[in-house]
Write a structure and sequence with these properties.
The chain has helices spanning about 20-30, 50-60, 85-90, 95-105, 125-130, 165-175, 190-200, 230-245, 260-270, 305-315, 335-340, 370-380, 395-400, 400-410, and strands spanning about 1-5, 10-15, 40, 65, 70-75, 80-85, 105-110, 135-140, 145, 155, 180-185, 205, 210-215, 225, 245-250, 270-275, 280-285, 295, 320-325, 345-350, 350-355, 365, 385-390, 410-415. The chain has about 425 residues and is of the alpha/beta class. It has two domains: about 1-20 and about 230-415, Enolpyruvate transferase domain (UDP-n-acetylglucosamine1-carboxyvinyl-transferase, Chain, Alpha-beta prism), CATH 3.65.10.10; about 20-225, UDP-n-acetylglucosamine1-carboxyvinyl-transferase, Chain, CATH 3.65.10. The strands form six sheets. Strands 22-23-1-24 form a four-stranded mixed β-sheet, with helices on one face. The protein has a four-stranded mixed β-sheet with strand order 2-15-17-16. It has a four-stranded mixed β-sheet with strand order 4-5-3-14, covered by helices on one side. A hairpin with a 2-residue loop joins strand 20 (about 345-350) and strand 21. Helix 10 packs parallel to helix 12. It is elongated and about 60 Å long. About 50% of the residues are buried. The structure holds ligand EPZ. Ligand EPZ binds near residues 126 and 162.
Length: about 425
């Protein structure tokens, strides 16, 4: 196990370049199984979730190799329809391998997916949608067995705009017989990336980014090369780091439109934000006004993946902030650790009342999930005194070179083995 040792209290200055989006790359990797030709994912981040997904592809029989940051995937020899339990438990997004494996092989077997412990994370919408496409699904002993010679296009209405279910159904229907209409689809930008990639492979998907996605099944998909969108959550994490530490940061390879809800909150707090092309400039110093209310909701609302970093920022704003986590049941695991650093937070169910304090104090804290670990790291680099953040495995799932990028902006942070 590894931990950060942090000496907090220093402002951040300089430039941070954003990685390709974890939550865009993962469905693109699943889509690579839809063709028996080679696909290339440019600027592919070597984060743990991506490496685990590559492990799943290799278990299916795909050949993979990195050439610099370009990931080549050759699925011509893929023949195994069973996604290994160990990897499926490690990775929530393994569940949207279901759609592409069924589309490719006519059957799929997967253990119930794992992922961060941020809530129940049911997959009922994935399974009910696949059944609408004609997939026969049996669930026994923690495994899901799917059989379907050829998915047939259908109308699917999602009870809630699930990102993964939308992606799974796009993948399952891309080569289906006929047309599929997905209503109440999730509108996240990562789904637009999946649409663009499948269309570059010869698919016919339209409407992604809106609430209705239409997928016209095609007989065959060919290889393609693609550069994923920038990681809006990583960009937001570093913007919040600047708001907490003070200073002046330029965030490169960022799409400000993807995090408009965060930029609005940071301006409310009185950060100076300027956007120019794919760069976001942030300057913060002096008083941080409380944003009063932060409510997570599906895109384009405030992203649940930035709730934990925003909660850390609210701890040192002037005044009280109410944080409401509407998407996941247990996404406040970072709160007890922030309280150890001197934060004043009261949680009732999905609501946290944060009363701002002048500054947090260094402490030894433990990460409990990916975004909570990032939030605790931001708290540590902004706090007075020394902190440690233990169990970096969570952070390594989604952030490449996290401490390297923070150190490059002036933070005193280093990784050591425990
Ligand atoms: C994706 O997870 C992201 N992961 C999550 O990012 C993100 O927090 C989430 O979308 C919401 O934006 C990836 O893209 C790999 P959902 P996903 O299905 O697809 C309920 C991170 O930190 N639901 O949109 O699992 C569910 O309980 C990760 O990068 C059902 O009820 O999220 C939740 O309340 C964490 N039934 C809500 O929908 C279902 O079948 C949103 O879940 C599926 C979901």
């Amino acid at each position: 196990m590894e931990k950060y040792i942090v000496e907090g209290g220093r402002p951040l200055y300089g430039h941070i370049e954003i990685q390709s989006a974890k939550n865009a790359v993962l469905p693109l990797l699943a889509a690579s199984v839809l063709t028996d030709e080679t696909v290339v994912i440019h600027k592919c981040p070597r984060i743990r979730d991506v490496l685990n997904m590559i492990g799943i592809l290799e278990e299916l029989g795909c050949g993979t190799r990195f050439d610099g940051d370009d990931l080549y995937i050759d699925s011509s020899a893929a023949a195994n329809h069973e996604i290994p339990a160990a990897l499926a438990k490690e990775l929530r997004s393994s569940v949207f391998m279901l759609g592409s494996v069924i589309a490719r092989f006519g059957r799929a077997r997967i253990a119930y997916p794992g992922g961060c412990d941020i809530g129940l994370r049911p997959i009922d919408l994935h399974l009910s949608g696949l059944r609408r496409l004609g997939v026969a699904i049996a669930e026994d002993g923690g495994y899901i067995d799917c059989v379907c010679e050829k998915p047939c296009g259908a109308e699917v209405l999602l009870d809630c705009p699930s990102v993964g279910a939308t992606e799974n159904l796009i993948l399952a229907s891309a080569r289906a017989e006929g047309t599929t209409v997905i209503r109440n689809a999730a509108r996240e930008p990562e789904i637009v990336d999946l649409q663009n990639f499948i269309n570059r492979m010869g698919g016919k998907v339209k409407g992604a980014g809106g609430a209705v996605v239409v997928v016209e099944g095609v007989r065959k998909l060919h290889g393609a090369a693609y550069t994923p969108m920038p990681d809006r959550i990583e960009a937001g994490t570093f913007l919040i780091a600047a708001a907490m530490c003070g200073g002046k940061l330029a965030i490169g390879n960022a799409n400000a439109d993807h995090i408009a809800s965060l930029l609005h909150k940071l301006r409310e707090i009185s950060c100076k934000i300027r956007v120019q092309d794919d760069k976001i400039y942030i300057e913060c110093g002096g008083k941080r006004l409380s944003p009063k209310l932060v409510e997570t909701s599906p895109y384009p609302g405030f992203p649940t993946d930035l709730q934990a970093p925003m909660t850390a920022l609210a701890c040192i704003c002037d005044g009280a902030t109410v944080i409401v986590e509407n998407l996941f049941e247990t996404r406040f695991k970072h709160v007890p650790e922030l309280i150890r650093m001197g934060a004043d937070i009261t949680v009732r169910g999905r609501t946290a009342l944060v009363r701002g304090v002048r500054s947090l104090k260094g402490a030894d804290v433990i990460a409990g999930d990916l975004r909570g670990g990032a939030a605790l790291t931001l708290a540590a680099i902004s706090a007075e005194g020394e902190s440690t953040v233990t169990d970096l495995g969570y952070i390594d799932r989604g952030y490449s070179e996290f401490e390297y990028k923070l150190r490059g902006a002036g933070a005193r942070i280093r990784r050591v083995r425990v």
